[in-house]
Structure formats: structure tokens, C-alpha cells
Write a structure and sequence with these properties.
The structure holds three protein chains of three kinds. Chain B is an all-alpha fold. Chain B is built from six helices and no strands. In chain B, α1 (5-26) packs antiparallel against α2 and α2 packs antiparallel against α3 (54-77). By secondary structure, chain C is an all-alpha fold. The chains are: A mainly alpha, B mainly alpha, C mainly alpha. Chains in contact: A-B, A-C, B-C.
């Protein structure tokens, strides 16, 4: 199980990786002064008191970018195995891949034309 | 069944998935619920690694945690009162009883007999040796999964078009 | 799992096999992560010195010779700063965000091949692992913005995430080319496949695409509207102080150098160079090449002005994404044609320079042609925008005479 040996490394690394930045933060927690007072702990708004809830004018634009990113993400993920096996396949693989990409380019062109990609 | 490091890993990832799922369902704060969901899916990704399918594990993390969690967060922002969901719209006790009963039925009726009768299922890892490059070959060769590959692309394009139609701001010249 | 080297030594010394394996893995983790952690300490000094020199000033030169100990002075300062956590913040997520952000960059180093014989893990899906781990960083920024319970932090976080998510597309598309050429997603194999010819010479547009998207992914100029201090104060990390802020800071610096190393691994031969079979020299080549690209990215950062968010998004969705898609199609088609007429080797690992030459020439010509088209197109667009801006300048003569 050579594969699992490599992943075991990643497993240990994944547990150790958040510990490395946690150490300085822990040391800081020990070393630093702690004098909380009401004013310091308030939410920052350029020195003024906050007005209203933490409610932000949310733009649909963010959501649309996220959505299109999601579609392209899945597409890219499917393209990687194709790219891996590309060298050992014949011309048909090339056509398959190009059609796959062109279909998604089609979707992108639709988004382009509908003006959805512009940041208004 | 011997306790190997793989069994321990299996137990750890199962626990992560279950605890995450429990967190999603019981959390009062929508944003925290999204984070619990990602924890649970991370557990699922770990299971995929144990099943010798690291590609699927990477897909889980990349697509779910990298894209869908972000989208969930954006969607959460679109709803007000994210942190004080205290009203309960259903009856808790009956629901718990029904869920437990259904689960018990599933285990006794379907899962246990299959598990006991097939020794292959009693190992937490698989001995499958097909790899990601085989998956790629099946995508590209004519006598394998090339057509589902293309259909997947078509499906993605349709999704994109549908999402844009729904999500964009309507103007007069639709 | 097989047990070799240190694990074997410990096992023979009487430890249980599981524990021996764990300890050898732990030592491996410490060695592998030692490189980025030591590097980040140096990087902070390098960054400040180079920024200073480009801005025609000296930079830190008081603490230690040439200001080398400046990083430790900064570290000490951040350690003893009071950590002001706003009362309304979401404790657990607020504290976890800097940890996940730094961890997501550190985890990338687990798959980078330092020398032909030394690497953390040779994953079959190395490239996807790297992208997946980098996307964890995006989530941590979102969490930081949310958990601070601050309007400005949230707004900053949204913009950052929209930017990161948009530029991830050309970055990952440009990574398809090394995977396609090498026939493997494993970074170790990708470096080995560049023995005959570096991928950056065969596909320079992909290298440029990766460089630009990576520059945007870390929020470096000209895409640094994330840290636009005059606009949103400090963006998503307003409410972070002390060492937690320090961790975000360090994560960003490390991310830039990580991108330089990845650019070298994917496109510029990794540890290849004269005498590459000696591990120390191979490691030196990797570091040297990565430093060159790191310097270039710092150079750009300190020279160009900041772009607006709508310009940044336009550039991504209307230029980079279509270009990266067209790039993949063109290169895939050309590679297959060359392979079918037997002018290009099917397995690039172990191919020699001469074998790679025809493919290199064809691909390079295609890239240059595409590049000329792109640059010409950008100049036209630039000219049009400039003309439009000029025609809109107000006329100073009195109106209504």
C-alpha cells in the first residue's frame, strides 16, 4: 500500500500544520498584557460607534461569480484525468477533450453575452 | 479484526463525518452550520483516501469546500437573522423516534445481512488497483466512458445557463 | 505500509511498528516544513529590503547587520502586543481562521519535490491536492471576515473571496498543460518530465497565465485591492491584532514564495540544472530559480499601481479565462498531432533534448502567435479606453455662449 504510506505523511502533516502557527499565538497569549475594557472590545468602525446590525448590502454579483466558478471548478476537475491519460491515447481523446471544453466555452459565451460577468 | 493504523484512520474519519453532520443539524447559527457541513465532507474525503480513490478525495475538498462552501456562505448572507434561529417548526420527540426507528430498520433489514455475508466488505480499505490515470483513459477512449464525459459537460453547461437565468437581475430586455 | 530508513531503525531498536512509523513520519514532517518556516523568516526581510531599494530608500538596517534581525524584532513586537478580541466576535471561528490560513499554505509544501530524492509525499494527484489545499485558504478568509462581526471585515472578505475565486480558474487551467505534457499529476513526475525541455519554453503562455493568476491569488499588486488601506481600512483582518494578525501576514508572504516555487516546479524544470544528481545542488537550483521569480513578483508589486475591482474582474473573465481555455485547446491539439506523426515522444520522462526539439518548436511557435494576437488585442482595447477617457475630459470654455 505505497499510496497509503504517502497519504499517511499528508495525514500527519495536516494535523501538524495548524500547530505551527498555533505555537507563536500561544506564546503571545502567555507573554502579552491583557487589559480589556469596554471601549477596546467594541467593533471597529473608524473610531465611531457602530450603527445598525452587521448587515451588509450584498451584491448578487458575488453569488454569480461563485456560481460560475463552481461550474468551471467541476469542469477542471474532470479534465485532469483526461490530461493525465492524454499521452497514451489516440486522436479520439483529443476530440473528446476539445468538445468537452468547447461545450463549456459555450456556457461562458452565454454568460458573457448576457452581461452577467461585468462588475456593475 | 485487527486494529491497524487503517482501522484507526477509518474510525477517525467516520467520527469526523458524524460529528460534522450532527453539528449541521443542531447548530443555531447558519454560518457555523455551513462550517460543520464542510467538516463532515472533509471526513468523507478522508474515507475516499482509505478506499484508494484519492482523486475523489481531492474533488470533495476542491469542489465542496472550495466552491460550495463559499456559495453557501453567500447564500447565508442573503438571509437575515443568521444567528438567532430558535423557533422550532416541528415536534422534536416524534421526529427523533421516527429517525431512530427508520435507522434501526435499515440496519437490521439491509445493512447487517449484506455485511455479514460478504467478507470483502469487512475490510476498511479496498484492494482495487485502478488508478486516476485509468479513469482518464476511460474518458478518452472510444469504447469506454467518452459519451458520459460529454454528457457531463453538457449538464454543466445547462447548469450554468440555468443558474444565470435565475440569478441575474432582470431588466426590461429579457 | 512499508517501513524503511528511520522507521526501520526505530523498529529494530525495540519500538512498536506503528509508533516507529509515526515517529519517522513526524521527523519527515518537521524536515519538510522546516524549509518554508525558515524561508518565511528570511522572506520578510527580503521583501522589505527590496521594496525599500525600489522605492529609493534603504530599508531596515539598524537591527543586526544589514537589518537581518529585523524580522525577530517584529516577531517580538507582535508577541507582546495586546490581543483585542471584539466581544461580539465568534470565538472559535475567529481564532481558527489564522491557523487554517497559514496551514493551507504550509500544506502545499508537502508535495513539492526539493531534490530528485527528497520530497514530502509523492501523491498521485499532487496538482489537485495543491489546488484543493489552496482553496482552504479562501474559506479561511471568509471565516475571518464573518467571525469578526464587523461590517468592513465582511465587505472586505466578500471582495477578497470574489477575487480569489475568479482568478483560480485561469490558474488551474494553466496547470492542465504541465499535467498534459507530463502525463501525470504527481509533482515529482512533472519535474522529471522536464529533463528534456522545460515546460516554460514549450508553453510560455501557460507560465505567464499561472504567474499572473498566482499574483492575483495572493493579493499582490496590481491586484492588491484587498489590502487597500485607504479604502476598507485593513479589509477582512481589521479586528485581528497581535500574533493572529502576524499569522495572516506570514501566510501571505509565504504564499508568494510558494507560488514562485510552484512556477519553477511546473514550468521551469524544478531542481534541474547542471549537476542535478547531487541533492544539495539540485536543491540550490530550485531555490535559485524560485528566487528569481520571487524577485520578479516583488518588482512588479512595487512598481505598478493598483487596479480597480471592476478592471480586475474584467481582465479575468474577458481575457484570462478565454485565453486559458483557448491555450489548452491549441496545445492539446498540437501535441496530439505531433504524437500521431511520431515527431514527439509519448512519454516525456527520460526523453532527451533532441527528442523534444520538434515539439518544442511547434508549441513555441503557436504560443508566440497566440501571444502576438493577445498583445495586439490588448493594445487595441487599451487605446479605445484611453480615447474614450480623453474625449470625456471637460471643455474649459464657457458653456452657453
Amino acid at each position: 500500500m505505497e499510496i497509503l504510506n504517502q497519504w499517511a505523511f499528508i495525514g500527519v502533516f495536516a494535523v501538524a500544520a495548524p500547530i505551527f502557527p498555533a505555537l507563536p499565538i500561544l506564546i503571545a497569549w502567555i507573554l502579552r498584557p491583557s487589559k480589556p475594557n469596554v471601549l477596546k472590545s467594541q467593533t471597529y468602525e473608524c473610531g465611531v460607534e457602530t450603527v445598525g446590525d452587521t448587515w451588509v448590502q450584498f451584491r448578487v454579483q458575488y453569488y454569480i461569480y461563485g456560481l460560475i466558478f463552481l461550474i468551471f471548478d467541476v469542469e477542471m476537475v474532470l479534465l485532469f484525468p483526461w490530461a493525465m491519460a492524454y499521452n497514451r491515447l489516440d486522436a479520439f481523446a483529443s476530440i473528446v477533450g476539445v468538445i468537452f471544453i468547447l461545450l463549456l466555452l459555450d456556457g461562458l459565451l452565454y454568460a458573457w453575452n448576457k452581461g452577467v460577468l461585468e462588475w456593475k | 479484526m485487527e486494529i491497524t493504523i487503517i482501522t484507526i484512520a477509518f474510525i477517525v474519519f467516520s467520527l469526523i463525518s458524524l460529528v460534522g453532520a450532527y453539528g449541521v443539524v443542531t447548530c443555531h447559527n447558519l454560518f457555523r452550520g455551513t462550517i460543520w457541513l464542510m467538516v463532515s465532507l472533509f471526513g468523507a474525503a478522508g474515507m475516499f483516501v482509505l478506499l484508494s480513490a484519492p482523486f475523489l478525495a481531492a474533488v470533495q475538498v476542491l469542489v465542496y469546500i472550495g466552491a460550495i462552501a463559499i456559495l453557501f456562505t453567500f447564500a447565508v448572507m442573503l438571509t437575515r437573522s443568521v444567528s438567532n434561529l430558535k423557533t422550532r417548526f416541528n415536534r422534536l420527540n416524534i421526529n427523533i423516534a421516527a429517525a431512530v426507528a427508520l435507522f434501526a430498520l435499515l440496519v437490521v433489514g439491509i445493512i447487517a445481512p449484506v455485511f455479514i455475508s460478504n467478507p470483502n466488505l469487512q475490510q476498511p480499505i479496498s484492494t482495487v488497483t485502478r488508478t486516476t490515470i485509468d479513469l482518464g483513459e476511460s474518458f478518452g477512449s472510444g469504447n469506454s466512458f467518452a459519451l458520459p464525459f460529454e454528457v457531463a459537460s453538457l449538464l454543466l453547461t445547462a447548469t450554468m445557463i440555468g443558474a444565470i437565468v435565475i440569478a441575474r437581475e432582470t431588466d426590461d430586455e429579457v | 505500509m512499508d517501513c524503511t530508513g528511520l522507521c526501520d531503525a526505530l523498529y529494530k531498536g525495540g519500538l512498536d511498528q506503528g509508533i516507529a512509523q509515526f515517529i519517522s513520519l513526524l521527523v519527515g514532517v518537521l524536515l519538510v516544513s522546516g524549509v518554508p518556516l525558515i524561508t518565511v523568516i528570511l522572506l520578510i526581510w527580503v521583501e522589505r529590503k527590496i521594496a525599500a531599494r525600489i522605492q529609493d530608500r534603504i530599508g531596515p538596517n539598524r537591527v543586526g547587520p544589514f537589518g537581518l534581525l529585523q524580522t525577530f524584532a517584529d516577531l517580538l513586537k507582535l508577541l507582546i502586543k495586546e490581543d483585542i478580541t471584539p466581544t461580539a466576535a465568534d470565538r472559535l471561528l475567529y481564532n481558527a481562521a489564522p491557523l487554517v490560513s497559514f496551514a493551507s499554505v504550509l500544506l502545499i509544501w508537502g508535495v513539492i519535490p526539493y531534490t530528485p530524492y527528497h520530497f514530502g509525499a509523492n501523491l498521485e494527484i499532487g496538482v489537485l491536492y495543491m489546488v484543493a489545499v489552496a482553496s482552504l485558504g479562501t474559506l479561511s478568509i471568509m471565516t475571518a471576515g464573518w467571525a469578526s462581526n464587523n461590517k468592513y471585515a465582511l465587505l472586505g472578505a466578500f471582495r477578497v473571496v470574489a477575487l480569489l475565486v475568479s482568478y483560480e480558474i485561469p490558474m488551474v487551467f494553466s496547470l492542465l498543460i504541465p499535467v498534459l505534457l507530463a502525463g501525470s499529476m504527481s509533482l515529482v513526475d512533472i519535474v522529471h518530465a522536464q529533463g528534456g525541455m522545460w515546460f516554460g519554453i514549450m508553453a510560455p503562455i501557460s507560465a505567464v497565465l499561472f504567474f499572473i493568476s498566482a499574483q492575483a491569488e495572493t493579493g499582490r499588486a496590481p491586484f492588491d485591492l484587498i489590502e487597500a488601506e485607504s479604502e476598507l481600512v485593513a479589509g477582512f483582518n481589521i479586528e485581528y491584532s497581535g500574533m493572529k494578525f502576524g499569522m495572516f501576514f506570514a501566510a501571505e508572504f509565504l504564499h508568494v514564495f510558494t507560488n514562485a516555487i510552484l512556477l519553477v516546479v511546473f514550468f521551469f524544470g524544478g531542481w534541474f540544472g547542471p549537476f542535478w544528481d547531487k541533492p544539495l545542488i539540485a536543491f540550490m537550483w530550485l531555490g535559485l530559480k524560485a528566487s528569481v521569480f520571487y524577485f520578479i513578483s516583488l518588482w512588479i508589486r512595487n512598481t505598478v499601481p493598483r487596479l480597480r475591482i471592476d478592471q480586475v474582474m474584467w481582465f479575468n473573465w474577458f481575457r484570462l479565462v478565454p485565453l486559458s481555455i483557448a491555450n489548452v485547446i491549441v496545445i492539446a491539439t498540437l501535441v496530439k498531432i505531433m504524437q500521431l506523426i511520431n515527431l514527439a515522444p509519448r512519454n516525456l520522462i527520460g526523453a532527451s533534448f533532441i527528442e523534444m526539439l520538434p515539439l518544442t518548436i511547434v508549441l513555441l511557435a503557436a504560443n508566440v502567435a497566440m501571444g502576438l494576437v493577445i498583445v495586439g488585442q490588448l493594445r487595441t482595447t487599451g487605446r479605445a479606453v484611453r480615447m474614450a477617457a480623453q474625449n470625456r475630459t471637460p471643455v474649459t470654455a464657457a458653456v452657453g455662449d
